[in-house]
Design a protein that fits this description.
Largest sheet: 9 strands, mixed
Number of strands: 17
Helix content: 25-40%
Order of helices and strands: EHEHEHEHEHEHEHHHEEEEEEEEEHHE
Shape: globular
Structural class: alpha/beta
Strand order of the largest sheet: 16-15-14-13-7-12-11-8-17
Distance between the termini: 48 Å
Bound molecules: nicotinamide-adenine-dinucleotide
Strand content: 25-35%
């Protein structure tokens, strides 16, 4: 019998679903040391939380997050709330000695990420920041190829994360548009993932030059069931001010000499979750598009010049990363990446080991994004180290 670990899920929205799925499935496909127990779900609306908990099998619900975090029977605090409260919940969880699994972006500003990392270090708890795209098998395989030297010297990183879910001017003014709740628009929401991938795959960013743009300045206030990424839905007749950008473009200078660009927008018609990267090196290139997440495109400059071209690698072999699911060619999806993250997290908890990305990675990512926001505000190049 595996030891049981009690989970407290803080939030019951879009990510609440993905995380509930992962805690439920992890033991069926991965050899993990614990059996997670879906103990208690904190939510802000009692009806929605109760419906959610019943559907996903959470034993109890609570409307009081501090009480939940401080319960003696909770081992892991899983934070899936709007970004502004990640810091308070993570610091409280660290003080209570709980291991922490937290959604991205880490927090709404660099100062908060530092507090989170300090609190987790001081308490010696395992902390994981869920930039889940690192755990797409094709992305983890790209990392292996780069480490094996298949791309040689890296010259360019191009990260584009494009969506179109808020193009309707009547899409409600959910927390995603309020700066104090989310930290920023697609810069924080989407480029946080792209910067995480770039740091993971090729290295640290030293300086940025960015332009942010807001296309729709006012939106209707949300109704009760409007506040989810997928639903849009219910709106109020009153309008409120949009406080964040709708699109953010950034040029990045990497510590290793590479030059990069990052585009993130919620106004790219037809792009749904178009999270892509292109990496160009002296020996070859790799490109990835999450909407084709089982595939990686690879160009090898050692191929005879007349035969050169990008080939598609289907990253589903039993020798590829996270090959615990089906047989080769039996493709997997978005939800599986959360199971990978939970599996790695439980292994780290058993050994009390560091897992990446964590709150220290969050610090570096948010510092870069704050530098980009400053660059856009002041219309100048900003060194990441300027952000204190
Ligand atoms: N890794 C990914 O792919 C991914 C995708 C989407 C969202 N996210 C992140 O997950 C987090 C949650 O996003 P979501 O899309 O699930 O949001 P959501 O709006 O669907 O759900 C948030 C939940 O948090 C709770 N909540 C709402 N308002 C709150 C408040 N003021 N204080 C405390 N709790 C509150 C509620 O239970 C709500 O259901 C965010 O940080 C977001 O950036 C990550």
């Amino acid at each position: 019998m595996k030891k049981k670990l009690n989970i407290a899920l803080m939030g019951s929205g879009f990510m609440g679903k993905a995380h509930s799925f992962a805690w439920t499935l992890v033991n069926k496909f991965f050899d993990v040391p614990y059996e997670p127990v879906l103990k208690v779900n904190f939510g802000t609306d009692e009806d929605i939380t109760r419906e959610f908990a019943e559907k996903w099998g959470w034993e109890e619900i609570s409307m009081n997050w501090e009480e939940v975090i401080n319960r003696d029977d909770i081992d892991i605090v899983d934070i899936v709330t709007p970004t502004y409260i990640h810091k308070d919940m993570a610091v409280a969880a660290a003080k209570a000695g709980k291991h922490i699994f937290c959604e991205k972006p880490c927090a709404v500003n660099y100062a908060q990420t530092k507090e989170m990392a300090e609190a987790a270090d001081k308490a010696g708890v395992v902390n994981y920041l869920n930039h889940n795209y690192r755990r797409v098998p094709a992305v983890a395989f790209a990392k292996q190829m780069i480490e094996e030297g298949k791309l040689g010297t890296i010259y360019h990183y191009r990260g584009a994360y494009l969506q179109d879910w808020v193009m309707d001017p009547n899409f409600p003014l959910t927390w995603h548009f309020k700066k104090d709740l989310c930290g920023g628009g697609p810069l924080f929401d989407l480029s946080s993932h792209s910067v995480d991938l770039a740091r993971y795959l090729i290295g640290e960013i030293d300086a940025v030059t960015a332009v942010n743009k807001t296309f729709i300045e006012e939106r209707p206030l949300p109704g009760k069931r409007a506040a989810t990424f997928t639903a849009g839905g219910e709106v109020n007749s009153e309008k409120g001010k949009v406080e964040v950008e709708d699109a953010s473009f950034m040029i990045a200078e990497f510590e290793n000499g590479a030059l990069g660009s990052f585009e993130s927008t919620r106004f790219a018609s037809g792009r749904k979750n178009y999270n892509t990267f292109e990496i160009y090196g002296s020996k070859g290139a790799l490109t990835f598009n999450f909407e084709r997440m089982n595939e990686l495109q690879y160009l090898n400059l050692d191929d005879p010049a007349d035969e050169q071209g990008f080939k598609t690698i289907l990253v589903t072999n039993m020798t590829h990363p996270y090959a615990a699911w089906w047989a080769a060619g039996h493709v997997i999806g978005y939800e599986n990446t959360f199971v990978h993250a939970v599996a790695d997290f439980l292994k780290a908890v058993e050994k009390n080991e560091t897992i990446e990305p964590n709150f220290h990675d969050g610090e570096k990512i948010i510092r870069t994004l704050e530098a980009a926001a400053l660059s856009s505000d002041e219309k100048r190049r900003v060194e990441v180290s300027e952000i204190k």
